[in-house]
């Protein structure tokens, strides 16, 4: 197996409204209609803006536990060659049930984009829809010499929309930089929303509310939203998800099940530990750091975010290989911390020694003979992915990004 050549971005047609998962529309539309009804005027067909804003602020205060004006949050959207679905992702972000009196900054972080400026143009158009666009001075960042010293910002009352660009292709770097800026602003919570996912209207409100309560009570440092997984078309790619579900093996969140589509964390805590290590897999690494600190990851089922999983075998295997590559990176990053390595090997069976992997297979087959074929197939799939992931790692051990998986875009 040989190293692949460097990926060169191929220009694609930009879709103003990418086709979101059908389930997203089914879930979102009734919620959005309910929100609009809260602004229904006394006369038919009249929308009472002041009434709507008052009820929106009350919803926020009731759920989050503090007034919007006392809320301090940064929401970062890392963007790496996402022009195809970026417009619609921004649209769902803008439709979030968020009062404009809240002190919230949306940070759009372009990182190592190779799309001839398409992503930048989409975000700039979005900022102009918000209001007047101004330059914003960022200053120096010792951790990222490729970051632009100025960004662009638009405001809607207390809510800020900031565009920042860096030549460093790394989601982890984007999150760490966002956390530095959030810490400077005094934000209690930082949230990540991926650029090829679609939020339900109340997702941010529920996630931020839970984060404020959990962090204030010292219950948790990291929280995850609920990932609503879709496939663009039926295929054998979701065989293992179906098989595991029928065997009762999925559907329950665990410590390591944090999904990178929607995450919140304690800004001060991440700043104190020096940020996320320079690896590609930001979500699992945040989970590890939280558990190192003795805190479980909390999941907020009401904070729903939609996205696609691979829908063909080739893409599925590519995704599995990428997962293995990422875990090898993490293992090297924590090689001097055996307690963390133990957690990693407990979570991810394919990271154990070969004799232990075989022992796990025999044990599983013995416990549930009726699922013999499933266990054998899963073992072979992950052994194949392990070989491919090891090659990927050897080709570029320091890479903090991934080649695109077409069926998820």
Description:
With 409 residues, the protein is α/β, with parallel strands linked by helices. It folds into two domains: 288 residues, Spore Coat Polysaccharide Biosynthesis Protein SpsA, Chain A; 97 residues, no CATH class. The protein contains 13 helices and ten strands. A ten-stranded mixed beta sheet has the order 3-4-5-2-1-6-9-8-10-7, sandwiched between helices. Helix 3 runs parallel beside helix 4. The N terminus is likely disordered.
Radius of gyration: 22 Å
Helix vs. strand class: alpha/beta
Instruction: List SSEs in N-to-C order.
Output: HHEHEHEEEHEEHEHEHHEHHHH
Q: What's the CATH architecture of the largest domain? A: Alpha-Beta Complex
What's the CATH topology name of the largest domain? Spore Coat Polysaccharide Biosynthesis Protein SpsA, Chain A
Q: How many structural units, i.e. domains?
A: 2
How far apart the termini lie comes to 26 Å
The CATH superfamily of the largest domain is identified as Spore Coat Polysaccharide Biosynthesis Protein SpsA, Chain A
Number of strands: 10
Total number of helices: 13
**Average pLDDT, all residues:** 86
Report low-confidence residues grouped into runs of 5 or more.
1-17, 247-256
Can you tell me the overall shape?
globular
Q: What strand order characterises the main sheet?
A: 3-4-5-2-1-6-9-8-10-7
Q: State the major sheet.
A: 10 strands, mixed
Under CATH at level 1, the class of the largest domain stands as Alpha Beta
Q: What share of the residues lie within helices?
A: 40-55%
């Amino acid at each position: 197996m040989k190293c692949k050549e460097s990926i060169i971005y191929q220009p694609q047609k930009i879709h103003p409204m990418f086709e979101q998962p059908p389930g997203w529309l089914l879930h979102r539309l009734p919620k959005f209609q309910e929100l609009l009804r809260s602004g229904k005027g006394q006369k038919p067909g009249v929308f009472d803006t002041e009434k709507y804003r008052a009820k929106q602020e009350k919803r926020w205060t009731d759920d989050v536990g503090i007034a919007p004006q006392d809320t301090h949050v940064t929401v970062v959207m890392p963007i790496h060659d996402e022009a195809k679905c970026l417009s619609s992702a921004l649209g769902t972000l803008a439709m979030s049930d968020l009062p404009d009196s809240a002190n919230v900054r949306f940070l759009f972080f372009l990182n190592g984009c190779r799309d001839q400026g398409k992503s930048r143009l989409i975000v700039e158009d979005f900022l102009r829809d918000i209001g007047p666009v101004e330059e914003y001075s960022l200053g120096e960042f010792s951790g990222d010499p490729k970051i632009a010293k100025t960004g662009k910002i638009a405001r809607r009352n207390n809510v800020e929309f900031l565009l920042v660009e860096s030549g460093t292709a790394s989601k982890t770097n984007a999150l760490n930089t966002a956390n530095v800026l959030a810490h400077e602003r005094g934000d209690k919570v930082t949230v990540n929303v991926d650029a090829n996912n679609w939020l339900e209207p109340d997702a941010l409100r529920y996630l931020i509310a839970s984060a404020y309560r959990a962090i204030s009570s010292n219950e948790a440092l990291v929280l995850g939203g609920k990932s609503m997984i879709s496939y663009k078309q039926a295929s054998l790619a979701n065989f293992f998800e179906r098989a595991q579900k029928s065997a009762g093996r999925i559907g329950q969140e665990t410590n390591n099940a944090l999904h990178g589509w929607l995450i919140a964390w304690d800004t001060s805590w991440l700043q104190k530990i020096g940020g996320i290590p320079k690896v590609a897999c930001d979500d699992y690494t945040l989970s590890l750091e939280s558990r190192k600190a003795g805190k479980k990851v909390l999941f907020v089922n009401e904070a729903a975010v939609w996205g696609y999983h691979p829908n063909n075998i080739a893409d599925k295997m590519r995704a599995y290989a990428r997962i293995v590559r990422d875990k090898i990176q993490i293992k090297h990053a924590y090689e001097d911390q055996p307690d963390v390595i133990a957690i990693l090997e407990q979570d991810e069976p394919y990271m154990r020694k070969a004799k232990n992997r075989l022992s796990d297979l025999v044990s599983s087959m013995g416990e549930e003979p009726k699922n013999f074929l499933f266990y054998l197939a899963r073992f072979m799939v992950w052994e194949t992915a392990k070989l491919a992931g090891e090659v990927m790692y050897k080709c570029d051990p320091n890479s903090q990004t991934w080649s695109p998986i077409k069926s998820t875009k």
